[in-house]
Structures are given as structure tokens and as C-alpha cells.
């Protein structure tokens, strides 16, 4: 077993405010951690070393394992992945930046029919399963998401100022007040070193600051990276994966969602791009689910696509392309011509 004794000098910091950095360990190392100070002792058992991902956004990220197609079979199959650990952050709001937040579900694993998995994000878990299948690296998943929320709620005040977003406080719907979820559900996580972030959000901005989403979303990404890398060993270029919005109503002639999907890529139409480096994307436009509308139950394929793109961007595996064929369009008097940069 791993045994390391590290004395900690709290100095003049506030009571309880301290940190310690463990030496790097091989992925999959399991140990117990005991923290002793004076008459107090805290024990953490069966801690596993691996990659930590923060999964955030609104209801399609919240969408749980027990709500997907074939949920019983998928949850049973997940028991074979005890090296994937997960937790759900409390859904709380705050008008000031907080340093701590509780958990709705404590750190768990899916082995032995753990019922906590029923309530966990399906996109987040399927992402981890697919990455684990390729790499065998344990995964720690933090579900910090809230249905029906806007990008502004997850953004710091500095990020909102950069995009000239007007102040907005909603007493009857505080989770959509500017920065209230950044303050309470992301800011407290900054001291944790994470591998990267996963994001499924945008529906709530279809009719709210939609045309500023090409600023607010890329700025959220850069601000999260800045904040986490400043407070921990998170890379300043931490990979950030997201899901392009699905189809809500098949056959509609409206342009709101197509425009918003473009804004998700900072109006490039693809990622990574100069304004969104080290990002990757899963398309979900073909996961239309008429019965479930805005919440398609086809989450397994979305997590798989996100993982394949992430294996290329976050883990530098050349065998996994980071995007599909991209077309260059030319025209003459009578025709348009599409030339793709790779086989289709």
C-alpha cells in the first residue's frame, strides 16, 4: 500500500484552509488517505488515481441513466466499470463566490448494482466508459449541472463583462441569475486538479442572448480554464468537450437552433478553431426523439461520440479523428461544388 507522511503547516490561513500536493502516482493506484490534525482525524478509503472530468450544463447533461433507452441493461453493464467513480454536486445558488459545496450523491462506483448510478448523468458516464475502454485509465466524474439553466448563470462576472452581458437577477428563478451557478457549483471546485470539462447546454439560450452565445460560450471555456489552472494543477489548456444541440421538432423551418449550433462553435462551424482551441464536439442533431422532445433518450451514442472526439483532442490518439469532413464551397453560374478535406 502507498504510505506517505506529509506534514502540513497551515501558517496564517483561516482555520481549515490548507492544501497538500501528493506526488504523481500511476493511474489505477488505490490507497487510503488519513488526515490527522490535533485531535481530529479524517479517513478516505479506496481512493483511486486517474483523470477527473467536470460535467456541466443543463437538463440534457442532467439526463440520468435510468431515463435512457434500455436503461436496465445499460446500468447492469456499467457494473463492470468499478474504476469509474462519480458524484453529484448539490444544486444550490449563491450571489457571491463560494469556496465549498456539498454533494447530493457521495463518491460512488457502479459495481454491485449501486443505485446511485440511476441518478447520474448518462452522457457523462458513457463518455467515461468509452474512454476507459480505450485507455484503462480510471475516471472521476463530477456532475455539476442544473436543468433549464442559461450559460450566463455558469459564467463569472468577468466573463459576462467581456461579452457586455447586462445584469440579470431573477429572485423567483435564481438558478438563471447571472453567475449564481458559477458562484455556487463551479467556483468551489477550482482547487481540484481536473483533466477537463464536458458541457451539454444551450437550449435555455435559444431565446435569451442567443446571438451573444458565440461570445459567452467561448469566454466561459477560457475563464474556467484560467480559474482552475490558477488554483490547481489543472492545465491552462484543459480540454473542453461539448454536445451540439439535438433536434427538438423534426421538419421545422425555424432557424433558431441552427444559428445557435453555429454559435456553439464561435461561428466557425467546427472545433477546434482559433477562438476555441483544445475543444471537441459531439453532434446530436440526428438523435431526434419525438416522444421525449427536447430530451432525447439516445444518450449512449452521444457519450460515445464525445469520447471518440475527446480521445483525439484530450488524449492525442491519432486513430480518433477530432472532426468529420469539412467542405469548401465554390460555385459557378449554375452550380455549387463541395470539396471535402477527407473521405466521406
Structure overview:
It is a single chain. By secondary structure, this protein is α/β, with parallel strands linked by helices. The chain has 8 helices and 11 strands. The strands form 3 sheets. The protein has a 7-stranded mixed sheet with strand order 5-4-6-3-7-8-9. A two-stranded antiparallel ribbon has the order 1-2. The chain has a two-stranded antiparallel sheet with strand order 10-11. The mean pLDDT is 93.
Number of helices: 8
Topology as H/E string? EEEHHEEHEHHEHEHEHEE
Structural class: alpha/beta
Mean pLDDT across the residues is 93
Order of the strands making up the biggest sheet: 5-4-6-3-7-8-9
According to DSSP, the number of beta strands is: 11
Radius of gyration: 21 Å
Please indicate the percent range of residues in DSSP E strands (runs of 2 or more).
15-25%
| Unreliable stretches covering 5 or more consecutive residues | none
Amino acid at each position: 500500500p502507498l504510505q506517505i507522511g506529509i506534514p502540513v503547516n497551515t501558517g496564517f490561513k483561516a482555520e481549515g484552509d490548507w492544501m497538500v500536493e501528493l506526488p504523481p502516482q500511476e493511474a489505477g493506484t488505490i490507497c487510503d488517505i488519513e488526515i490527522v490534525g490535533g485531535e481530529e482525524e479524517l479517513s478516505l478509503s479506496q481512493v483511486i488515481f486517474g483523470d477527473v472530468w467536470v460535467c456541466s450544463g443543463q437538463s440534457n447533461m442532467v439526463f440520468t441513466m435510468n431515463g435512457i433507452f434500455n436503461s436496465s441493461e445499460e446500468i447492469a453493464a456499467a457494473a463492470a466499470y468499478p474504476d469509474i467513480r462519480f458524484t453529484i454536486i448539490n444544486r444550490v445558488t449563491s450571489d457571491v463566490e463560494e469556496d465549498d459545496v456539498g454533494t447530493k450523491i457521495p463518491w460512488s462506483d457502479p459495481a454491485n448494482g449501486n443505485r446511485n448510478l440511476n441518478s447520474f448523468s448518462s452522457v457523462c458516464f458513457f463518455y467515461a466508459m468509452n474512454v476507459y475502454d480505450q485507455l484503462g485509465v480510471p475516471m472521476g466524474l463530477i456532475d455539476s449541472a442544473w436543468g433549464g439553466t442559461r450559460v450566463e448563470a455558469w459564467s463569472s462576472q468577468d466573463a459576462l463583462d467581456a461579452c457586455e452581458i447586462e445584469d440579470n437577477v431573477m429572485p423567483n428563478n435564481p438558478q438563471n441569475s447571472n453567475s449564481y451557478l458559477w458562484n455556487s457549483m463551479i467556483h468551489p471546485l477550482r482547487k481540484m486538479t481536473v483533466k477537463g470539462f464536458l458541457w451539454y447546454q444551450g437550449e435555455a439560450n435559444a431565446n435569451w442572448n442567443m446571438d451573444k452565445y458565440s461570445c459567452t460560450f467561448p469566454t466561459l471555456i477560457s475563464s474556467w480554464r484560467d480559474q482552475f489552472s490558477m488554483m490547481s494543477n489543472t492545465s491552462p489548456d484543459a480540454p473542453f468537450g461539448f454536445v451540439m444541440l439535438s433536434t427538438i421538432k423534426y421538419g421545422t423551418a425555424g432557424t433558431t437552433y441552427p444559428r445557435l449550433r453555429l454559435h456553439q462553435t464561435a461561428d466557425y462551424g467546427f472545433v477546434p478553431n482559433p477562438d476555441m482551441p483544445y475543444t471537441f464536439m459531439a453532434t446530436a442533431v440526428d438523435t431526434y426523439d419525438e416522444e421525449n422532445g427536447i430530451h432525447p433518450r439516445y444518450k449512449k451514442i452521444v457519450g460515445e461520440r464525445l469520447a471518440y472526439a475527446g480521445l483525439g483532442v484530450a488524449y492525442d490518439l491519432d486513430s480518433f479523428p477530432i472532426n468529420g469532413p469539412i467542405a469548401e464551397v465554390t460555385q459557378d453560374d449554375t452550380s455549387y461544388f463541395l470539396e471535402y478535406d477527407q473521405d466521406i
